[in-house]
Specification:
The protein is an alpha/beta fold. 53% of the residues lie in helices and 9% in strands.
Length: 481
């Protein structure tokens, strides 16, 4: 679902969502009237759901920190039930003043001179308050990235500038970026506390996705007063102490956006301002990247985050359960960690689904209930073996007399490429993995390669009986009738 579809779905069901929160979380009438009833949808961007406190419903605003504590748990659990539960959603609360500014723009005109500081702080830096180093689980898959992130947070602009973090979807890149920003701001505030108030200066942080960066640039260009709008755009991004750009891959191939980001990079680097960039792949794997931009990305440190091993997955689940005040049998953790391997978001989403499922059924969480709640995520065949990407890769490689390593390799010979494409098709058909996740599982391939491979097999199945028979035979091995 895109942002517009999510917003429309939420608006259409918003009152029902709030009432479901009250019923399923046993929220008292008084608490509901104070913390839940006044909330309304402000906007949705990049799966971030912006919710504001509507003073037309209740005059006394309770504060976003209080809302984070009182309203977030129930909304985080119930909202996904009305949307695509395989996707991840973030909730951000806005005060009435922040909502008004978001809709109408700041009351004072933005400064257009580049040497002036924009108004920016932790409050409007788009950071998720839950994404801190304390809540980040360190394992073999991410220890180097974590160490580099901590070094950057301790001394922004001095080491590893830029810090470039890459890895698959849902592995913790965004979490680590936000953790750096939170830590750096806390360090700065502690140092500033020792200074007279008149000598204190803010530490300005800006977090955006590359999609937002691109869209804001487009709006600045197409505005009626393009010179002023472009100057405001540049002022916003070039006068921060720390800039975090998520999913940088989406600007590759967009010439004007690459040009603007290049100059933004140079401006910030020249002032020793820290930049943290994330992507799904290392810089040199981009086919259409400008050489000068590539050189900038490689000036600092490039680190990757890989898929978590079993022990790390167990630790993530236990941390999540503790944060949500859930006391679960270790068998449940083991069941999830054994069967969901490629995505931290899916691990946490599975735990959320079990929790909500038990509340809706009004029963305790047991291993049997967990299996029932997750049957659409973890689909066991008749032999009780979960259908996972790893199982499918093993079945296909055995069928063709090759190794799993061959499937993951860069070999392009037909005896390897065809089984690889069939593997892509079968993983897509029998699991809930998305194209980019399948690509990461199969040797870090681009999602467009996976889409092309799946479509190729679909076409061959329609036109070539041999391919259709092969896929049918493999399907019977994966899921016996």
């Amino acid at each position: 679902m895109n942002s517009t579809e999510i917003k429309e779905k939420l608006l259409a069901n918003w009152e029902e969502i709030k009432n479901t929160c009250r019923e399923e979380f046993d929220i008292s009438s008084v608490s509901y009237e104070i913390f839940i009833y006044p909330l309304d949808i402000l906007d949705v961007k990049d799966h971030t759901i912006m919710i504001y406190f509507n003073t037309n419903k209740k005059k006394n605003f309770v504060g976003t920190v209080t809302l984070d504590r009182k309203a977030r748990p129930s909304l985080s659990a119930i909202i996904p039930l009305y949307l695509d539960q395989s996707e991840d959603y973030e909730i951000v609360f806005y005060s009435p003043e922040e909502a008004e500014e978001y809709l109408n723009g700041p009351k004072t005109a933005a400064l257009s001179q580049e040497n002036q500081k924009p108004v920016s702080s932790a409050k409007n830096s788009n950071l998720n308050p839950r994404y801190t180093f304390d809540t980040f689980v360190v394992g073999n898959n991410n220890s180097m990235a974590h160490a580099a992130a901590l070094a950057v947070a301790e001394a922004p602009g001095e080491f590893y500038n830029p810090l470039y973090i890459y890895g698959g979807v849902g592995l913790g890149k965004t979490h680590l970026m936000h953790a750096i920003a939170h830590y750096a701001m806390e360090q700065h505030e502690r140092k500033q506390a020792d200074l007279p108030e008149k000598d204190r200066v803010p530490f300005n942080v800006m977090y955006v996705t590359s999609e937002v960066f691109t869209n804001e640039l487009i709006e600045a260009i197409r505005g009626g007063k393009s010179d002023i709008a472009t100057a405001e755009f540049r002022n916003k991004y070039r006068n921060v102490d720390m800039l975090l750009i998520d999913d940088i891959q989406f600007i590759i191939g967009k010439d004007r956006t690459q040009e603007e980001f290049f100059h933004t990079f140079n401006s910030l680097f020249g002032k020793n301002r820290q930049m943290i960039i994330s992507s799904d792949k290392p810089p040199r794997e981009f086919a259409q990247i400008e050489e000068r931009l590539l050189s900038r990305f490689e000036m600092g440190l490039t680190v990757d985050i890989q898929m978590p091993d079993y022990e790390t997955r167990m630790a993530i689940l236990r941390n999540k359960a503790e944060a949500d005040h859930l006391r679960l049998d270790d068998k449940i953790f083991d069941y999830i960690a054994t069967n969901i391997k490629s995505n931290i978001r899916e691990l946490e989403g599975a735990l959320n689904k079990i929790n909500v499922y038990s509340r809706l059924k009004h029963v305790e969480i047991t291993p049997e209930l967990a299996e029932e709640a997750l049957k659409d995520l973890i689909s066991p065949n008749e032999n009780g073996v979960a259908i996972t990407p790893e199982l499918i890769m093993k079945i296909v490689s055995d069928y063709y007399g090759i190794t799993v390593e061959d499937l993951l390799s860069t070999k392009k010979s037909r005896d390897i490429s065809v089984p690889r494409q069939i593997t892509m098709y079968l993983i897509r058909a029998y699991t809930h993995e998305k194209y980019d996740q399948i690509g990461m599982l199969l040797g870090g391939r681009d999602h467009t390669t996976v889409i092309s491979g799946v479509r190729k097999i679909e076409e061959d199945m329609r036109n070539d009986p041999t391919t259709a028979n092969t896929v049918e035979a493999l399907s019977k091995r994966i899921k016996p009738e």
